[in-house]
TrEMBL record:
InterPro entries: CobN/Mg_chltase. This is CobN/magnesium chelatase domain-containing protein. Residues 2-332, 336-746 form the CobN/magnesium chelatase domain. It holds the Pfam family CobN-Mg_chel. GO terms for cellular component: chloroplast. It comes from Linum tenue. Transmembrane segments: none annotated.
Length: 766
């Protein structure tokens, strides 16, 4: 029975480059596939010809033995002629508006559509074609609606109708299928995810800490998700100079009264300069404690391998550090492992136990993994506890802005609401918006929050702060009731009969109503997102593919994609473009603000954060062209902190990219690890592009660590030459775009390395 089952395992390549095949958040994809297939083989599945090791598996999918270097293409498993493609793909004509006649130039050789991957018995491992828009930012800029390209459609036609899969297993977080255009929920045959997945049962290994995007995979591609553990966090540990600095400071604490104080202080300051901590010197001791306690995911997870004893202990210590009402003993949950067991259940067509998604450190009920991920009741947020946390962060944010801004309150804060974060924190950042404008949410007897009431100015003790809220596409899909709540709240505050110097929402709405000749309620439009069915500003795609001319182009993308407003006065109208109000509201912002709520994901781990950052955009819209302050709240530890964006970028560089504990952890994963390092540098360039808040030394130190160190450079080049090439290219780009000033020697060396690794990849020996 098992021997006859056909399984199509699908991996992702994002951004599209051979060095990126098998991309997934926190997952060592090929080692995991190898572990899954070895296990299925024991159960009688036919995986004929499966290689002996996961390294050999990579080689075969990336091509013959030489692939890592010599061939530009992946292994082709099937060539589909145009006529066959049209017969198997009834919706092919609908793609022609965007992509012309098949075969097109993506996943094609000019005559046939190409399916990449490799078949082992009844198991096919395929590479999902890319989104298709990556190399062409102008299309991204103008495309309000888009569609999959012919190669993308051909892949799924092959899986369903040529290979005849009994199930598809999407491997890791996440692919493009479920983000293709169409309705947000309740798909119909006119929605592309529905057409693509066809009638194939869809099983999806998904990161346990990402419930909101898992929900989209379920709603839009009918996926049965199976959660996998994100690598346990370890404290960042201090390295090199920082370690020495930590010791000096603690010796100062104990010796400052013995007359040796002054010389220790001068040593501390010079060591601090070496570690680029001198900007933060007044806060030095706490700074060092902070780097020491930042939680770091160590290495990448392998499905079917429970964490080692050390890793389990690290996770437990972190779980214990956050105050929480209930304390079970969690150890057996951390080491229990049902990721493979649940997959087998699913392949038998049996029930997979559901469970909440989120950061296991915040919510131990996420463990053991291997569950079908669900989110929470979207009407129940923000909870009372979330409101309490929100108030603390808002007060700290306002205090910090007053210190940095001559004692003045910020009149407007531009901020981001993320879907996942609000699920994990039960609506903390949503609560922050409500508290800035000075209203409190009121729950009904069922605990559903569907109305708000103003907090009096006496109780608030400060002016009501205006907001410009950028909701992620995921937040818009999951929390439409909350968008309604927020929009009603802002408009209610704009209509309060209060002096404008105590109510900045009203102040700005009155000015904007007059300028634009509209009523005050419409002028108080502040809740924005993408058009329905569209996600992200696509700045991330442009940065990942280096396909942008200048910062203005990125800002135009943001404005054209993020200027769709929710209007509680027009029920059922969906998102409507209101670009003028959006621009005017942003032009009043004195500060930009985002939350980091999970120890696993920080600023440069993913491209979403800079993709949503409007700092430079606000500066270009402001009449005085003043750069707004940029802040990040970090609620990952028991003590919530508000830091500037540049402090956070520095902290992030020290705890991740430049920290031996982190990069050695990554490199122990081999091929995937190099890509993780490259991705961090690319995301750092993203921050330079959207905010200009990255210090020169971050690039300089990264160059010293990964390029100047001959041995390190060779390890990177040998492990994953394609990602290494991208790393070198990113250094050169950072310099070319004016984000990194360095010596001519460094640039010359990078140029030489680039042509060297090019030759190596093309298989040219000099």
């Amino acid at each position: 029975m098992q021997a006859e089952k056909k399984l199509a395992i699908t991996v992702f390549s994002f951004p599209p480059d051979k060095g990126n095949v098998g991309t997934a958040a926190y997952l060592n994809v090929f080692a995991s596939i190898f572990s899954v297939l070895s296990d299925l083989k024991k159960d009688g599945y036919n995986v004929e010809g499966l290689p002996e090791t996961s390294e050999a598996l990579i080689e075969e999918i990336l091509h013959d033995k030489e692939a890592q270097f010599s061939s530009p293409n992946l292994n082709v498993v099937y060539k589909m002629g145009v006529r066959e493609y049209q017969e198997l793909t009834p919706y092919a004509t609908a793609l022609e508006e965007n992509w012309g006649k098949p075969p097109g130039n993506l996943n094609s050789d000019g005559e046939n559509l190409l399916v990449y991957g490799k078949q082992y018995g009844n198991v096919f491992i395929g590479v999902q074609p890319t989104f298709g828009y990556e190399g062409d930012p102008m299309r991204l800029l103008f495309s309000k609606s888009a569609s999959p390209h012919h190669g993308f459609a051909a892949y799924y036609s092959f899986v369903e109708k040529v290979f005849k899969a009994d199930a598809v297993l999407h491997f890791g977080t996440h692919g493009s299928l479920e983000f293709m255009p169409g309705k947000q929920v309740g798909m119909s045959d006119a929605c592309f995810p529905d057409s693509l997945i066809g009638n194939i049962p869809n099983i999806y290994y998904y990161a346990a800490n990402n419930p909101s995007e898992a929900t989209i995979a379920k709603r839009r591609s009918y996926a049965n998700t199976i959660s996998y553990l994100t690598p346990p966090a370890e404290n960042a540990g201090l390295y090199k100079g920082l370690k020495q600095l930590g010791e000096l400071i603690s010796s100062y604490q104990s010796l400052k009264d013995t007359g040796r104080g002054p010389q220790i202080v001068s040593t501390i300051i010079s060591t601090a300069r070496q570690c680029n901590l001198d900007k933060d010197v007044d806060l030095l001791y706490s700074k060092i404690m902070e780097i020491e306690s930042r939680l770091l995911p160590c290495g990448l997870h392998v499905v079917g391998e429970p964490p080692s004893a050390m890793e389990a202990v690290a996770t437990l210590v972190n779980i214990a550090a956050l105050d929480r009402p209930e304390e079970g003993d969690c150890l057996k949950l951390v080491v229990a492992d049902n990721e493979l067991g649940s997959l087998k259940q699913a392949l038998e067509g049996k029930f997979v136990e559901p469970g909440p998604g989120g950061d296991p450190i915040r919510n131990p009920k996420v463990l053991p993994t291997g569950k079908n991920i669900h989110a929470l009741d979207p009407q129940s947020i923000p909870t009372e506890a979330a409101m309490q946390s929100a108030k603390v962060v808002v007060e700290r944010l306002i205090e910090r802005q007053k210190i940095d801004n001559g004692g003045n309150y910020p009149e407007t804060v531009a901020l981001v609401l993320w879907g996942t974060d609000n699920i994990k924190t039960y609506g903390e950042s949503l609560g922050q918006v409500l508290w800035m404008i000075g209203v409190r949410p009121i729950a009904d007897t069922f605990g559903r929050v569907n109305r708000v009431e103003p907090v009096s100015l006496e109780e608030l003790g400060r002016p009501r702060i205006d907001v410009v809220v950028n909701c992620s596409g995921v937040f818009r899909d999951l929390f439409i009731n909350q968008m309604n709540l927020l929009d009603r709240a802002v408009k209610m505050v704009a209509e309060l009969d209060e002096p404008v110097e105590m109510n900045y929402v009203r102040k700005h709405a009155l000015e904007q109503a007059e300028t634009l000749g509209i009523d005050i309620r419409e002028a108080a439009t502040r809740i924005f997102s993408n058009a329905s069915g569209s996600y992200s500003s696509n700045i991330n795609l442009a940065v990942e593919n280096s396909s942008w001319n200048d910062e203005k182009q990125l800002q135009d993308m943001y404005l054209s994609r993020k200027s769709f407003a929710f209007d509680s006065d027009a029920p059922g109208a969906g998102m409507m473009e209101k670009k003028k109000v959006f621009e005017m509201a942003l032009s009043t912002a004195d500060a930009t603000f985002q939350n980091l709520d999970s120890s696993e994901i920080s600023l440069t781990d993913v491209s979403h954060y800079f993709d949503s950052d409007p700092t430079n955009l606000v500066q270009s819209l402001r009449k005085d062209k003043k750069k707004p302050s940029a802040y990040i709240a970090d609620t990952t530890t028991a003590n919530a902190q508000v830091r500037t964006l540049s402090e956070t970028v520095r902290l992030d560089a020290r705890t991740k990219l430049l920290n031996p504990k982190w990069y050695e952890g990554m490199m122990s994963s081999g091929y995937e690890g190099v890509r993780e390092i490259e991705k961090r540098l690319t995301n750092t360039v993203g921050w330079s592009a959207t905010s200009g808040q990255v210090d020169n030394w971050v690039y300089e130190e990264a160059n010293t660590t990964f390029i100047q160190d001959e041995e390190m450079m060779k390890r990177l080049m040998d492990m994953n030459p394609n990602s290494f090439r991208k790393l070198v290219q990113t250094f050169l780009e950072a310099n070319g775009r004016g984000y990194w000033e360095t010596s001519e020697d460094n640039i010359e060396k990078l140029r030489q390395l680039y042509s060297e690794v090019e030759d190596k990849i093309e298989g040219v020996d000099r």
